[in-house]
Design goal:
3 helices, alpha+beta, 80 residues
């Protein structure tokens, strides 16, 4: 199981209280699940609205991650 860097932006960053954290997991889903345990319900509620990237590329929850990979959660952008 690798140690990935989870990067958070905008509203999900606010929910977690941090923009970056090292999280252990073998897949994107495991990293997100571990982050949900760590950051709580407010974080978990926002995850389904986010786009997921691994090392800058679109990713699926089943995708594998390893040491040094960066998993990013990008909530929808709002504004006017």
């Amino acid at each position: 199981m690798g140690m990935a860097t989870l990067r958070l932006f905008a509203s999900i960053r606010e929910a977690a209280g941090t923009g970056s954290v090292a999280i252990e997991g073998a897949t994107v889903a495991e990293v997100i699940e571990a982050a949900g345990v760590r950051f709580g319900a407010g974080f978990v509620e926002l995850v389904p609205t986010c786009r997921v990237r691994v090392n800058g590329e679109p990713a699926l929850e089943a995708d594998f991650v390893g040491d040094g990979d960066e998993v990013a959660l990008l909530p929808p952008v709002s504004g006017g």
